[in-house]
Design goal:
Helix content is 41%, strand content 16%. It is α/β, with parallel strands linked by helices.
Length: 237
Amino acid sequence: MMPAPKANGFNGRYCAIIPAYQAAQTIAQVVRRVKQHGVAAIVIDDGSVDQTVALATEAGALVISHLHNEGKGKALRTGFDHALRAGFDGIITLDSDGQHDPEEIPALIRAGEVQHAGLVLGNRMGSSAGAMPPLRRVINRVMSRLISLLTRQPIPDSQCGFRLLRRELLQAISPLSATRYDIETEIILAAAAKHWKIISVPVKSLYDPKQHRSHIRPARDTWRFLALLARRLSRRP
C-alpha cells in the first residue's frame, strides 16, 4: 500500500541535488523554483570561486562544498550520499545553469510514483531537441542508441541530467565510480543490470548561449563514455 500523500501531493520526501560550478548567474533562481514544489534543494558546490555558495544559501539551499573542482559525477555522488543519510525517498537531479525547468519536477515524481519506476529520465529529444546545439544533439542520439542496445530497452535521451532516482535504486547500484559526465550513463547501465524499471518523460530544455555556458567537452566526454561502455561490456558473462 502506498503511504498517504504528503502536503505537496507526493508519496514521499524528495530532494533535488544540484551540482554547481561557477553558477552565480543562475543558481538562486534555480533553487527558489525548486523549493516552490516542496522539494528540498541541495547544492553541491564543486569548487566555485564566484558567489555560487552565498547566493545558493541565501535562496534557501543546503550547500555542500568541494574544496576543489572534482567534476559533475563526483558532485552528484556527494549529493547522493547525503540524500541517503538524510532519509529522502527520491532524488531529483538537475543542472544549475537553468537548462532544466523546475516546473517539470512534479511530472517526473508523479510518473515515477504512478508507474513504480526506479529511474525516470527526462527526454529532451522531442519538440525541444531543435534548441540543443547541433553537435550535442548528434552525439546524444548516437550515445542513446548504443545505450538502448545494451539495455535492450528504449532510452531516447541517455545524457539528460534531469531525472529522478528512487532511494532503493540508488542503494542497489551503489557505489558509483564516475567523476564526470559519464555518471549519467553509469547510472542507466547499473539500473538496467539490476533489472530496475526505467521510463522516460518528455521535458523541455532551455538553451541560451549567453547564459548557459556548458562545461561539457564533446571529444573528452565522448571518450569517457566509450571507455565506460567498454568496461561494462568486459564484465558481461
